Q: What sequence folds into this?
């Protein structure tokens, strides 16, 4: 049966959507904790019928009745990417589960091995509620604000499921949504900026790589009518240089949103500061050290995520996002009562490993080109990439904007300045080489340009 024709399903969706969007402003922290406790109990009970989780729980001597709330979450075993891969397809959903009404989603496979998960219709629509909440936090409205999202619309992507097959088709039955456009990230940037220029949205967004391409076009005379209130960035790490480059090009603040294929919406940048609000009623975040113990506030920890809703493939204590994150205490200064995080420092697999075996966060060095850009008032660095070849050698690839090559600071001096500042930050024990290149290649597995690549294997 088509769920869009089921009045019970439609009522559930309508009720959930209205409460989801506004919840984080309406309930206090204690009420949020109770909500999360109930949600966790329900999702753990559901997962006990999923072969993967059933086996893991029995091996750990855990029964759903042992989990009373979030305080008990540490009793549950951690689930890895390999667990999902090895148990796909039948082991990651309940026995006799009907997959016909679900969406099969896959991650980008940036490590070379994509992960597949099943997403039910309700969870797909929940993702839309998360984005509607973000728009509200930024002074916009899903029903009226003009919005363009440049996203992956290929079958199997989260965006295809949400915007072409579930949430948006459902909403279009009740409202026009002429204020929203979805463009394919596979289109030529020249065509995309022409569409944005014609539509003149209050908000537009894409991944950092596409935003950088659009900013370059804007700096070269394209899209002169584009005057957004805010620009959204998501899908991969937003480095400081790209953020400033895009903000300068469009004269608008770039705000970072954080989500994943497996867990859905996870966090969004606070409009008043650089910290992030967690979608705490959607997900529970843990930040663990190498011994799987919680870290203190203001200390970096490995993210372990639990999605608190939906059917299909449950995501409970999942370590597969592989991001290093710094949690902070929330003082509720802007009225949103969720947990907060200070920084998303990037994937743990791409941390820079130093000769003394200490690690260096990507964000501690990706801001260097931005600082030089500010100091020398130049935007001739069109793009850059940091590649760690060995423990003692790091290469910085730089693409120079040809139209700005002879404007301002000479390129030779700029490259020397980059080499000096990177060396100062990384340390004398590592050789830093800065090379100019015409183009930085996409990662063939993830189809986007990675800002930081480490080829040094790290001990598990």
A:
């Amino acid at each position: 049966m088509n769920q869009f024709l089921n009045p019970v399903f439609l009522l559930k969706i309508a009720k959930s959507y209205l409460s989801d969007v506004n919840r984080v402003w309406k309930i206090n922290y204690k009420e949020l904790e109770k909500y999360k406790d109930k949600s966790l109990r329900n999702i753990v009970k559901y997962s006990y019928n999923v072969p993967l989780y059933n086996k893991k729980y029995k091996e750990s001597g855990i029964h759903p009745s042992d989990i009373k709330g979030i305080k008990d979450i540490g009793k549950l075993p951690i689930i890895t990417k390999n667990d999902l891969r090895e148990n796909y397809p039948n082991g990651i959903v309940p026995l006799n589960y009907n997959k016909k009404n679900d969406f099969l989603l896959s991650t980008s496979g940036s490590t070379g091995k994509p992960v597949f998960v099943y997403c039910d219709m309700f969870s797909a629509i929940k993702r839309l509620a998360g984005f509607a909440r973000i728009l509200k936090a930024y002074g916009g409205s899903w029903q009226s604000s003009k919005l363009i999202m440049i996203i992956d619309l290929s079958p199997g992507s989260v965006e295809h499921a949400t915007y072409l097959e579930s949430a948006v088709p459902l909403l279009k039955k009740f409202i026009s949504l002429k204020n929203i456009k979805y463009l394919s990230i596979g289109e030529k940037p020249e065509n995309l900026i022409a569409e944005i220029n014609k539509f003149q949205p209050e908000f537009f967004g894409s991944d950092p790589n596409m935003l950088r391409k659009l900013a370059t076009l804007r700096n070269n005379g394209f899209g002169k009518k584009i005057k957004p209130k805010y620009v959204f960035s998501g899908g991969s790490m937003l480095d400081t240089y790209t953020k400033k480059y895009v903000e300068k090009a469009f004269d608008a603040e770039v705000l970072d949103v954080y989500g994943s294929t497996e867990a859905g919406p996870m966090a969004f940048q606070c409009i008043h500061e650089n910290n992030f609000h967690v979608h705490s009623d959607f997900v529970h975040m843990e930040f663990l050290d190498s011994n799987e113990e919680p870290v203190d506030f203001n200390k970096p920890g490995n993210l372990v995520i639990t999605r608190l809703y939906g059917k299909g493939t449950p995501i409970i204590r999942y370590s597969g996002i592989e991001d290093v994150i710094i949690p902070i205490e929330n003082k509720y200064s802007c009225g949103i009562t969720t947990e907060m995080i200070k920084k998303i420092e990037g994937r743990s697999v791409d941390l820079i490993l130093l000769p003394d075996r200490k690690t260096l966060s990507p964000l501690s060095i990706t801001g260097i080109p931005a600082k030089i850009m500010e100091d020398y008032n130049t935007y001739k660095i069109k793009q850059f990439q940091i590649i760690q070849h060995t423990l003692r050698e790091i290469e910085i690839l730089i693409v120079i904007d040809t139209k700005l090559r002879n404007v301002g600071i000479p390129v030779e001096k700029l490259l020397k300045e980059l080499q000096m500042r990177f060396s100062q930050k990384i340390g004398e024990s590592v050789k830093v080489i800065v090379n100019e290149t015409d183009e930085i290649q996409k990662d063939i597995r993830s189809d986007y340009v990675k800002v930081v690549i480490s080829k040094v294997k790290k001990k598990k």
The CA atoms of residues 79 and 385 lie 32 Å apart. The chain has two domains: 3-183+231-349, 352-454. The chain has twelve helices and 19 strands. The chain has a mean pLDDT of 86.
